[in-house]
Design a protein that fits this description.
single chain, alpha/beta, Spore Coat Polysaccharide Biosynthesis Protein SpsA, Chain A, eight-stranded mixed sheet, four-stranded mixed sheet, 8 helices
Length: about 280
């Protein structure tokens, strides 16, 4: 058990109905987080503060008055004071050793800047687990047999070819070790990723007027670390449950999402060029 390590959990939230499940899961951890940073938007701050008190958690509730999703992530990161920063969503449900496990993993991999893990969809009306796209047999076969030659990694990310990487065209791709084997990888999903605070003090999530959901923001953040020479890992052994939601997670249209992907690609290119890497 890693008792000396302070773990901050950062959560962007709109005060959704699932938040109580996250807070209950954090309350019931084998090692409680040092602090829970909730960056809330479009909801009553006092209601969220009252909810936190009901679960007896060390919460800091920050109201987000401007910006989008990644602005909330940066606000939470700036506020966090822990040695390890863990990011998740307000509809996630951590398992009992989630915080403790991240502390153990970061102690084991001392020189690794980022460690991410997977999620499982769960039907809260059941409850029962539901497979994600990563678990489908056809997806696994594609990643082993087709993707390596059809969508090879960008030369600067060859080390991450078995995990999450950027392709030569700067798209986000998942390699054959995702979701069930440990490998070098860009951060997998924002619902379950962690960082050593001392390694990410000058790394930030992308803020852009066109980015509402900012798909690929996790990889943008991780790319900053790789370009500074740090390692980032994916491990499957510290999952969270993720509420299977019928409603859309955002109001962005398909066209808007496509445009956001293009913006993210331009931001990846800017990062690579800044570090003297050809795109």
């Amino acid at each position: 058990m890693i008792k000396m390590t302070r773990v901050s959990v950062v959560v962007p939230s709109k005060g959704c109905k699932y938040l109580k499940h996250l807070l209950r899961g954090l309350r019931d951890q084998s090692v409680r987080p040092y602090e829970v940073i909730l960056v809330v938007k479009e909801c009553n701050v006092k209601d969220v503060e009252s909810l936190c008190k009901g679960y007896n958690l060390p919460c800091a509730v920050i109201e987000q008055e401007r910006g989008y999703f990644t602005h909330a992530l940066n606000m939470g990161k700036k506020e966090a004071k822990g040695d390890i920063l863990v990011f998740t969503d307000d509809d996630a449900i951590p398992l009992q050793r989630w915080v403790e496990r991240y502390a153990e993993l970061h102690a084991r991999y001392r020189d690794v800047a980022a460690i991410s893990s997977r999620d499982f969809y769960v039907d809260l009306n059941g409850p029962r687990l539901a497979p994600t796209a990563d678990d489908k047999t056809i997806v696994r076969i594609y990643r082993w047999l087709v993707r390596p030659w059809l969508e090879p990694p960008h030369p600067s990310l060859e080390k991450c070819r078995l995990g999450v990487y950027l392709t030569r065209r700067l798209g986000v791709a998942h390699g054959p070790f995702i979701p069930d084997r440990t490998c070098y990888s860009l951060p997998f999903r924002g619902v379950n990723m962690s960082f050593k605070a001392s390694y990410v003090y000058d790394a930030w999530f992308p803020e852009h007027e066109s980015l509402k959901r900012a798909p690929g923001n996790e990889q943008h953040f991780g790319l900053q670390l790789l370009l500074k020479g740090f390692d980032t890992l994916y491990v499957p052994s510290n999952p969270v449950l993720h509420a299977a939601r019928g409603e859309s997670l955002s109001r962005t249209t398909r066209h808007e999402v496509k445009q956001e992907f293009k913006v993210m690609q331009s931001l990846y290119a800017e990062l690579l060029q800044k570090h003297g890497v050809q795109t």
